[in-house]
Write a structure and sequence with these properties.
The protein is an alpha/beta fold. 39% of the residues lie in helices and 17% in strands. A hairpin with a 5-residue loop joins strand 6 and strand 7.
């Protein structure tokens, strides 16, 4: 049952009501905002509608519908109906056409409409049809139907809907992943493809918005999981136990309207949430059952029940909701009283491809665990298949593509609601500082990943590259300008933070833990074999050099004493030089999955990180520590990890490096001691709790 209809200015009102509304808006100062809404709605109507969604039209024969049969349904799909058999049959046909993997049943509760066509529904295979002997009204009919099921979940679905692929599994999966929520609802779209609702907003006067109505449902702003004020009962999944504990929909709102919003408020009062799941898409023929005229029939109860909702939840509305039409970014995310963090990076993080992405993911997840609302602006403006959805499914809004608009316009509209900004990388960050300062009062933190100028200078010295040396000077100037313009500078080690502060006295610089691990392995016996492992992302020049040095200068020394030793080079985007290293004793595995990488660590005898230049804390070092795979590295590889020399072997020349590898290949006792010490070190320095604590304390975001 759709709760509220966001009206364009003066729509669907009598002339007297229109005059009264304009007068009230003028008196209360709402008129300018109302005019902006009206212009926006008019502009939306003028846009070409999105492509029409697949839908079932025409007459559907009940004998042609066969719903799946499950002995133990996890979900009971409750379809309240009052006649309208043609729509009901198309609703059921859509369910049969897109059956979920989740075991389910469909319970159709026909509310004594007297329509003789209802008899045809008895011929739908595997449909649980309940025909009420008397009319109960929508709310009581839904409650009565809910009591007939012992499924884990109840999905209330209007009979004037048509579900789309993924409609149920995505909702169930979300609630499985989110024990803090007891209800989740779908994205509702009109038959012409335009958006009907992406969750609902309720303002502090009790009025509401079907958020995004008439807009393009593909826009990023409508496609991330978030907590909402309410979800329309047209497609709403609820844990049955929670629904039963509340006594179902409150009969005070009978026969219909606002019962779904009241349910959301009562769930929150019990300490749980209602979520919007954009992956669940449902086509809704709005107004078929009860029409759209607020002055007659069933719809007249909408006005009465809206007043009842406002009276019942007056204190909550005043404390947790915004004035109508204000702070929309916060209102749609239920962010009243919460901090909003904006993260800006060069592209959507790809944590299985590069270390910097792993860090940015760890930081955003730390913000989420701390209760922050997180927004992500991608500098390249690109959608990244799989990776964009990974952020959206975590509840992070990813702003990308032409529908995201320019950053200047976005921050001008939303800057008042941003509390803190985390900028990433020198080549990305500089251009954002001026508009951020102009349009917001947010605290600006800059995370450099490493000291780019210093790393490039070290590389230039190692390769005698004068052009690179000049580029290093330019990079350092760029870094120092950013440091001076932000509130706090962050690096993955206190050593780098001290260097930054010495180069630019007066700035605030801190080290933060950059890599987060939630789980650590138990001690295990040394693996069989003599495999040496080097893991790296080869878009980063120091890693290519390290791989070549390892194969050319170190591995031959190892194989002289250990002729069965082999090397596995594992990483993303291997260069032509790295690919050329493959041979009888050198295996290359590119762009592996997380599971495959874990297998490489578990079966390797030694992890080698032979970096000759670079800067910052290295993921491949931390990863080997956390996996408990005994590690050999250089001073460069150990940068930023205090006390690491007491835990692992650090060697600076090929002979010493090879000797350390050979010892771990041969000595099981040394291997076991190293593995245990590394895991303990990683727990102390690189747990998710440590990352969250250091990030929040250092950044102030």
């Amino acid at each position: 049952m759709v709760l509220f209809f966001r009206k364009e200015l003066l729509a669907s009102c009598t002339f007297a009501n229109r005059i009264a509304r304009v007068a009230w808006w003028t008196l209360t100062g709402q008129l300018p905002q109302r005019l902006r809404w009206w212009r926006a709605a008019r502009a939306a109507r003028r846009l070409p509608p999105p492509p029409q969604v697949p839908q079932i039209t025409g007459n559907v024969a009940p004998d042609d519908i066969c719903l799946p049969a499950h002995a133990n349904p996890v979900v009971c799909v409750i379809v309240p109906s009052y006649g309208q058999v043609d729509y009901t049959l198309r609703c059921l046909a859509a369910i049969a056409a897109s059956p979920p993997q989740t075991p389910f049943e469909v319970l159709l509760a026909e509310d004594c409409s007297g329509d003789p066509a209802v008899a045809a529904l008895r011929r739908v295979a595997n449909l649980r049809l309940v025909e009420n002997p008397r009319n109960l009204g929508f709310l009581l009919n839904a409650n009565e139907a809910a009591q007939r099921s012992d499924a884990e979940f109840l999905l209330f679905l209007n009979n004037d809907t048509q579900v789309q692929p993924g409609w149920l599994d995505t909702l169930v999966e979300l609630l499985r992943q989110r024990p803090d929520a007891d209800a989740a609802g779908s994205k509702l779209i009109y038959p012409d493809g335009r958006l009907q609702e992406a969750g609902g907003i309720i303002w502090n006067d009790g009025s509401g918005w079907n958020y995004g109505r008439l807009d393009d449902p593909a826009r990023p702003v409508y496609n991330y999981v978030r907590e909402v004020d309410y979800i329309s009962g047209a497609a709403l999944l609820v844990r049955r136990a929670a629904f039963a504990a509340l006594g179902g929909f409150d009969p005070a709102f009978a026969p219909a309207y606002c019962e779904d919003s009241d349910l959301a408020f009562r769930l929150r009062a019990e300490g749980t949430k209602m979520l919007y799941q954009p992956r669940s898409v449902v086509l809704h023929f709005e107004g078929i059952t009860h029409g759209t005229d607020l002055g007659t029939g069933m719809k007249a109860h909408q006005v009465t029940n809206q007043q009842r909702l406002r009276t019942r939840w007056h204190d909550t509305l005043a404390a947790e909701h915004f004035d109508p039409g204000t702070h929309i970014l916060r209102a749609r995310d239920r962010a009243h009283g919460k901090r909003v963090a904006l993260v800006i990076d060069h592209y959507v993080p790809q944590p299985d491809r590069d270390a910097g992405s792993r860090t940015m993911m760890a930081f955003m997840e730390a913000f989420l665990r701390a209760g922050r609302i997180v927004k992500f602006w991608t500098d390249n403006g690109a959608y990244s298949a799989g990776y964009t959805e990974a952020l959206q499914d975590r509840g992070i809004e990813v702003i990308y593509g032409p529908t995201g608009g320019s950053f200047e316009s976005w921050i001008a509209e939303n800057g008042q609601d941003i509390d803190g900004v985390l900028l990433s990388r020198p080549h990305t960050s500089g251009k954002y500082i001026a508009p951020l300062r102009h349009h917001s009062t947010a605290r600006l933190a800059y995370y450099g990943h490493d000291l780019h100028g210093m790393r490039m200078r070290n590389q230039a010295a190692a390769t005698s590259d004068t052009a690179l040396a000049a580029a290093a000077e330019a990079a350092e100037r760029q870094e120092r300008e950013i440091w001076r313009r932000v509130d706090v500078v962050l690096y993955p080690s206190e050593d780098e933070a001290r260097i930054a502060a010495s180069l630019e006295p007066g700035i605030t610089a801190h080290g933060v833990a950059a890599y987060a691990f939630a789980d650590f392995p138990a001690p295990r016996p040394p693996p069989a074999g003599e495999t040496i492992l080097f893991v790296a992302g080869f878009g980063h020049p120091p890693n290519e050099d390290a791989a070549c040095w390892l194969v050319r200068d170190i591995l031959p020394l190892v194989r002289t004493a250990r002729p069965h030793a082999t090397l596995s080079i594992v990483g993303s985007n291997p260069t032509a030089r790295v690919q050329a290293l493959q041979g009888e004793f050198v295996r290359l595995a590119a762009n592996v999955t997380d599971a495959e990488l874990a297998h490489f660590y578990a079966t390797a005898r030694v992890a080698a990180v032979p970096l000759r230049y670079g800067a910052g804390v290295k993921l491949k070092v931390v990863e080997a520590l956390a996996q408990g795979t005994p590690l050999v590295t250089t001073e460069i590889g150990a940068q930023g990890c205090p006390g690491l020399a007491q835990v692992i072997d650090i060697a600076g020349d090929p002979t010493a490096f090879a000797a350390a590898i050979m010892r771990l290949l041969a000595d099981d006792t040394a291997w076991s001691q190293a593995a245990a010490a590394q895991i303990a070190y990683a727990k102390q320095h690189f747990s998710t709790e440590v990352v969250q604590k250091t990030l929040l304390a250092a950044s102030g975001l």
